[in-house]
């Protein structure tokens, strides 16, 4: 699959946003407690969204320097990412993030973030694909989308015909 998961994207976002205070080896991330939400949505161009992977993402940050960086910045970064992600969190009943903070020393903490995320499971036709759907073979990939680059409009002003 060529698309990154929401967990990969938020982890990369946090790492980039927290540099130079947090290094890549200070962040671990994994998925837990997943559910497949079946949707069978025809996306056109022979692509389908057959489901959504709803899961709890866990992000573990070690050595967070809470005296050098305001911890509320981390909370704001998480909120900003989730708002910008475009998922309607209410529609998919995605819980708000849970955050646990444990002191390691006087100037460092460990932060454990748990948040519900959603990833599309999109398939496209592929004669060598390993997914059989509607009697055809498919592969997991981003479904192609046609995007209009121009639009024609007709404006009718009172009495013009």
UniProtKB/TrEMBL annotation:
This is Phage tail protein. It comes from Shewanella hanedai (Alteromonas hanedai).
């Amino acid at each position: 699959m060529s698309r990154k998961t929401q967990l990969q994207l938020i982890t990369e976002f946090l790492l980039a946003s927290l540099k130079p205070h947090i290094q890549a080896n200070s962040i671990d991330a994994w998925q837990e407690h997943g559910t497949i939400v079946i949707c069978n949505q025809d996306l056109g161009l022979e692509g389908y969204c057959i489901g959504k992977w709803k899961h709890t993402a866990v992000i573990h940050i070690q050595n967070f320097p809470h005296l050098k960086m305001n911890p509320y910045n981390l909370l704001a970064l998480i909120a900003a990412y989730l708002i910008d992600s475009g998922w309607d969190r209410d529609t998919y009943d995605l819980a708000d993030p849970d955050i646990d903070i444990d002191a390691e020393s006087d100037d460092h903490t460990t932060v454990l973030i748990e948040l519900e995320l959603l990833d599309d499971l999109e398939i496209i036709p592929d004669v060598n694909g390993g997914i059989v759907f509607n009697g055809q073979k498919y592969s997991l990939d981003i479904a192609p989308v046609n995007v209009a680059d121009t639009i024609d409009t007709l404006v009718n002003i009172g009495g013009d015909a």
